[in-house]
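Morning run. Coffee first, then this:
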Amino acid sequence: MATQWRVAKWRPRRTTLLAFAMLAPSLLFLALFTYWPVVEVAWQALHNQRKIGGPQVFVGLDNFLKLFADAAFRKALANNLVYAFGTVVPSLVLALGFAMALAKSNRVNTLVRALFFLPVLLPLVAAASIFLFLFLPNVGLLDYHLAKLALSGPNWLGDPDVALYSIMGLTIWKNAGYYMLFFLAGLQAVPADAYEAAILDGAGPWQRLRYITLPYLKPTIGFVLVIGLLNVVTQVDHVFVLTKGGPSDSTNLLLFYVYQQAVESYDAGRAAAGTLVMLALLLAITASSLRTLERSFGERDQ
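And here it is:
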């Protein structure tokens, strides 16, 4: 009896040890390449280093105080908020519209889906180069067609009031096709008999969208929001190619600000402090989005 009890007690422990043994390589890589760099960045944010390889001087929270006192950082933070609201929501709405219009599987829709998805295949630097040609003042493709209509456009990338919105146009164009794929997959989960019952009850297109399609797509919408918001904070290639943060910091975003501090100003402490602020934003976005996703799945399964 005692032997059977010991065997029954040992089996769960053996299963746990086996699970940790199988996870050990992944946990090791996670610790080395994810958590340890975060510790290094946190250490750097609390120190100043005059030159590369020079001695580090402990300054406490001084780098954070200087960071939030910097008008360029506050401008980059505000730009990121405008950029997030102005790109994620329009991209999501366009993607949902594309997916609903092209949900029916046939050759024409397959071809159109591929055309909408084509921008996703382009590297961001290549897409930015295309838009650079599009936005060139007077000789760019956009001004060329406006001139044919006897209209004149602004300096798309040189006007501080317009430049950020021009960059947002590139982001929307590139992301809408990518998000469309998620909505196409989500629409496959909507039962056809729900639409048939709604049509028999006299529900119109708007009512079917509101009471059938959108409730079923809530988890997909939440997932796309997470992806979109994370992209907003982590993308910087197009800013580097199109405007380099100018004019007058009107297109400067958080990640580009960190790059400027680390590479152009050689201020590793302030760059590390900015990186930690970005990391805190990403964690907050991820945690709140995952919570929203869990609620969406729970409501749908009820």
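The CA atoms of residues 171 and 293 lie 24 Å apart. Good start to the day.
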